[in-house]
């Protein structure tokens, strides 16, 4: 700074020195992809909505955008591959394809590819369906054909956040008629259920006897006995909170009349008492199940299929008992739906039909440790003994959740964490 | 410089900016309404919200002084961060004393391994803590064995504070050890020869050189624990939810305006703490550090006297506490990785890793690619973070107006909500931006490396800047007057003199990269760029075994890496 005699070439030396440092940053460009958008050349572009909804997406993109194999666009194949086998990209949540115990992903891919002339590719973004919701909200193209693992709350959120459709109506899917009544959760027929589960209480029978009713959880001898999950961050936690809301309603001015015949006593009143009885609300199912497994409390909010896993591990089933409070459990059906932006909607529909076939339904139930969505599923003998279903499954419909869910969770958070 | 700024803008300031701006731009209109509503919400700000709502400050002060005051989520978050900072300093400084002032077998290895807690994913720490401090944990087993009453630590504020100390006390220990080692022995000897007793010499000579390091460790601990997230809900419960928990929820609901506003509040508080520290550091003019370090004493003196035994007795007590806080959870994790469903010992979980490696489908996460990617990304991101950190350190140790502000802003990657950084990277890089009809998107290995470098470079700044600050300016000026360019001076004069800090910074950059999860999982599109923490998350299931086995792999790989780095880097100072 004091010396102005620095020659220009020395400056250049310095710049080169610094450029070496930044080299890896420049390498970042190697991870760049550039894609032509919005000029009508490519059917899968960002102009969402005007190509998928009429179901013609598979036919009209013979010219392939020029970015990969533009010279090879001969017969209208939708695939990025060099051969003619079309590719179906199926988005789902991580544990559907890659759980440490069992997951259906691998079997489904092999089986689908053996039955249909297509390649199945899995996509498991960490944010799950929110990833696609955020892509759509940002105007980025959707790079998958269908999503497997949607629930009612997801659909409500998608429809509240987006003006355009993220998913389209499933249309004519073989086997959809076999889906059990009461599982169909999408009033616009986009999501087709492929399995279901029930959130219930799991308890260690050698330590306690779980109460038969919600009110029983407030008893002195169950103080500090229950571990639940945060409804704002965990799907089991949310299902359990919704179950209490189903039971106790959301107050005299609310929209849900509880099953307890007391309009003045709502779910927040129940949770206040539950909190006074030292319920533990942890962040995720993992947190809760870990603490429960280590004996921090004898009861945990979890799935009614718990004994299936316990049996696989050779654990003592007495320590893995299921209780349905008031003989009820909150049902959590999972659906699959085709993206409005899908390159191959017909193939996606074919995949949906495949998912509903009796033998596939049985495999999904077994490998995803859940219950089949159809009434003609082929289940192994003895499966029903370990995987328990409640006498009275309860759930909220799309219409009930719409406009209310967010407020219910916020009110719960503000009461529970207010300090 | 330009490259550094480019990397920072591309993978940090631009993506984060696009999210934060949502707090003031709602539906295309610039507004402060979101902030006003937030600041006046007692749920977040407790009694202070009344101040923001225009109430009489005296009335608010009275309310704050009353026992049934409301802290609000923000207040509680600061409160637990303060407690965690105190605990981390209390557990970190004795470790620094032990490591800086005593000689014993394995000292250097233990010093290298102090960085290991930094890389452990919170789920692993949670597993270790439940097994150690839980109802049926190691601590209670020991207490029962001694005939003492058991303690209920789980789901309390104490559990969170101890877990935060697990992560951050080693950080305090590292900075403080480095400062202690660089106290000049001759200054102490001069003080003693002038008649000062050992206590006086410590207070007047040693302590002033150690304080700044302790404060730096404390400031960083506060910032890290202020932004804490999964560990709070894993060990404490929702009653103890922090700001970050609500940012996570709001982002999940796509309520970006409120999430961004909360993140700005978090950022302002964290940056204020860092800026306050930086002002203090700048005011400290400790020159000529570490010409001749104080000699280490043997931990086991040949002829014990009371004067020598007392501090060692204190250290013995400390070692027992440290073993419980640091070693027991890690040991519990090791144990969990070899415990089967029936409670017996088994190697099944490691067999699972081998099996997954051998037969896992291409789309599944396999252990070896995770290990390989982690090592490659760590090395690459350290290579990027080092020049970035050195350049920013040079830029912030020059004298000009507002440099504290520049220095504080350069620390922003420490202070911005991790959840928002992830969201920004997703929307800004993975989804891409549209430029002249082309959508430019960035993902994959190179982006992961850049993101890790950005997360790690502030450590390099903090390890290098104090050294540069205390360099004798006349060295630089003489070199310049002899015709050396600015770059030449940096390379030939300044860098060699602060080399120990550079090595220490590299160690931290590697640690950050090894442990990073949020940005990695966003940018590692597909299954080809995942790292060990991502693999651990994938292997979490109903059984703890597979994930803990992968956790042990992470532990061993990082532990070995640090021993190697610090052996290669030589004896150093800095962090």
Instruction: Please give the order of strands in the largest beta sheet of chain B.
Output: 1-2
**In the CATH hierarchy, what is the superfamily of the largest domain in chain B?**
MetI-like
Compute the CA-based radius of gyration of chain A: 26 Å
Low-confidence stretches of chain A: 1-30, 39-81
Overall mean confidence score, pLDDT of chain A: 83
Mean pLDDT of chain B: 86
User: How is the biggest beta sheet of chain B arranged?
Assistant: 2 strands, antiparallel
The overall number of domains of chain B is: 3
Percent range for β-strand residues of chain B = under 5%
In terms of DSSP E residues, the strand content of chain A is: 15-25%
Hey, which two chains have the biggest interface?
Answer: A-B, 91 and 99 residues
Distance between the termini of chain B: 24 Å
CATH architectural label of the largest domain in chain B: Orthogonal Bundle
Indicate the structural class of chain A: alpha/beta
Taking the alpha carbons of the first and last residues of chain A, their distance comes to 55 Å
The largest β sheet of chain A comes out as: 7 strands, mixed
**Helicity range of chain A:** 25-40%
Number of strand segments of chain B:
6
């Amino acid at each position: 700074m004091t010396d102005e005699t620095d020659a220009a070439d020395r400056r250049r030396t310095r710049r080169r020195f610094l450029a070496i440092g930044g080299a890896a940053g420049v390498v970042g460009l190697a991870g760049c992809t550039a894609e032509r958008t919005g000029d009508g050349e490519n059917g899968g572009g960002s102009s969402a909505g005007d190509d998928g909804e009429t179901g013609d997406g598979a036919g009209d993109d013979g010219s392939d955008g020029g970015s990969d194999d533009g010279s090879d666009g001969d017969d209208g194949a939708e695939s990025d591959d060099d051969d003619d086998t079309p590719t179906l990209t199926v988005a789902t949540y991580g544990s559907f394809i890659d759980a440490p115990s069992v997951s259906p992903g691998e079997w489904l891919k092999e089986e689908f590819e053996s039955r249909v002339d297509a390649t199945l590719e899995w996509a498991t973004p960490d944010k799950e369906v929110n990833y696609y919701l955020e892509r759509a909200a940002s105007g980025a193209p959707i790079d998958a054909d269908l999503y497997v693992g949607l629930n009612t709350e997801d659909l409500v959120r998608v429809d509240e956040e987006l003006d355009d459709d993220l998913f389209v109506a499933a249309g004519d899917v073989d086997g959809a008629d076999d889906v059990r009544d009461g599982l169909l959760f999408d009033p616009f027929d986009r999501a087709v259920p492929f399995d279901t589960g029930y959130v219930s209480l799991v308890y260690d029978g050698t330590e306690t006897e779980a109460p038969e009713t919600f009110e029983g959880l407030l008893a002195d001898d169950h103080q500090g006995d229950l571990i639940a999950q945060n409804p704002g961050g965990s799907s089991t936690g949310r299902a359990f909170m919704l179950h209490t809301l189903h039971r106790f309603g959301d107050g005299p001015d609310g929209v849900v009349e509880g099953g307890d015949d007391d309009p003045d006593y709502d779910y927040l009143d129940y949770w206040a008492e539950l909190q006074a009885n030292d319920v533990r609300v942890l962040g995720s199912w993992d947190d809760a199940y870990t603490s429960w497994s280590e004996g921090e409390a004898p009861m945990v909010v979890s799935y009614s299929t718990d004994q299936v896993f316990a049996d696989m591990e050779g654990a003592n089933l007495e320590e893995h008992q299921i209780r349905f409070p008031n003989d009820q459990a909150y049902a959590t059906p999972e659906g699959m739906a085709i993206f409005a932006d899908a390159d191959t909607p017909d193939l996606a529909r074919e995949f949906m039909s495949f998912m509903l076939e009796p033998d596939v339904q049985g495999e999904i139930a077994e490998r995803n440790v859940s219950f089949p969505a159809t009434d003609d599923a082929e289940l192994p003998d003895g499966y029903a003994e370990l995987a328990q279903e409640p006498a009275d499954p309860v759930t909220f419909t799309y219409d009930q959740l719409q406009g209310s869910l967010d407020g219910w969770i916020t009110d719960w958070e503000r009461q529970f964490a207010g300090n | 410089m330009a490259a550094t700024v480019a990397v920072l803008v591309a993978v940090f300031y631009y993506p984060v900016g696009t999210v934060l701006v949502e707090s003031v731009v709602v539906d295309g209109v610039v507004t402060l309404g979101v902030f006003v509503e937030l600041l006046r919400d007692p749920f977040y700000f407790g009694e202070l919200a009344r101040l923001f709502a225009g109430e009489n400050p005296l009335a608010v002060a009275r309310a704050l002084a009353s026992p049934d005051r409301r802290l609000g989520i923000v207040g509680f978050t600061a409160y637990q961060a303060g407690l965690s900072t105190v605990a981390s300093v209390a557990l970190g400084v004795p470790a620094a004393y032990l490591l800086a002032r005593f000689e014993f077998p394995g000292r250097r290895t233990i010093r290298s391994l102090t960085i290991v807690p930094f890389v452990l994913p919170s789920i692993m720490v949670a597993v270790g803590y439940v097994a150690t401090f839980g109802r049926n944990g190691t601590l209670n087993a020991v207490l029962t064995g001694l005939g003492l009453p058991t303690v209920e630590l789980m789901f309390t504020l104490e559990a969170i504070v101890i877990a935060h100390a697990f992560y951050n006390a080693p950080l305090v220990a590292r900075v403080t050890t480095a400062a202690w080692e660089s106290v000049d022995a001759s200054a102490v000897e001069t003080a003693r020869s002038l008649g000062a007793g050992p206590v006086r010499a410590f207070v007047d000579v040693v302590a002033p050189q150690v304080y700044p390091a302790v404060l730096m460790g404390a400031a960083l601990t506060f910032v890290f624990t202020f932004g804490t997230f999964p560990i709070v809900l894993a060990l404490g419960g929702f009653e103890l939810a922090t700001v970050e928990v609500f940012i996570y929820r709001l982002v999940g609901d796509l309520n970006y305006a409120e999430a961004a506003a909360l993140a700005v509040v978090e950022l302002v508080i964290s940056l204020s703490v860092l800026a306050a520290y930086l002002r203090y550091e700048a005011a400290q003019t400790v020159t000529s550090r570490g010409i001749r370090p104080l000699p280490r004493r043997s931990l086991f003196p040949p002829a014990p006297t009371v004067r020598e035994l007392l501090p060692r007795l204190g250290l013995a007590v400390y070692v027992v506490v440290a073993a419980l806080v640091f070693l027991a959870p890690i040991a519990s994790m090791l144990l969990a990785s070899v415990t089967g469903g029936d409670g017996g010992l088994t190697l099944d979980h490691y067999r699972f890793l081998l099996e997954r490696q051998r037969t896992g489908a291409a789309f599944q996460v396999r252990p070896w690619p995770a290990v390989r990617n982690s090592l490659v990304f760590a090395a690459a991101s350290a290579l990027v973070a080092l020049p970035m950190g050195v350049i920013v350190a040079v830029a912030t140790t020059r004298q000009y107006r507002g440099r504290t502000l520049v220095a504080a802003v350069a620390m922003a990657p420490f202070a911005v909500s991790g959840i928002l950084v992830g969201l920004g990277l997703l929307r800004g890089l993975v989804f891409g931006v549209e430029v002249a009809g082309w959508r430019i998107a960035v993902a994959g290995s190179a982006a992961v490396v850049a993101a890790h470098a950005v997360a790690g470079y502030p450590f390099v700044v903090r390890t290098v800047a104090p050294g540069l600050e205390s360099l004798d300016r006349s060295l630089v000026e003489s070199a310049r007057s002899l015709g050396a360019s600015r770059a030449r001076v940096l390379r030939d004069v300044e860098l060699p003199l602060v080399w120990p800090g550079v090595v220490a910074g590299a160690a931290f950059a590697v640690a950050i990269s090894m442990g990073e999860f949020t940005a990695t999982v966003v940018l590692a599109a597909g299954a080809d760029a995942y790292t060990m923490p991502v693999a651990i998350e994938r292997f979490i299931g109903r059984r703890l075994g597979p994930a803990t086995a992968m956790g042990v792999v992470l532990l061993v790989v990082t532990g070995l890496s640090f021993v190697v780095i610090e052996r290669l880097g030589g004896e150093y100072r800095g962090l």
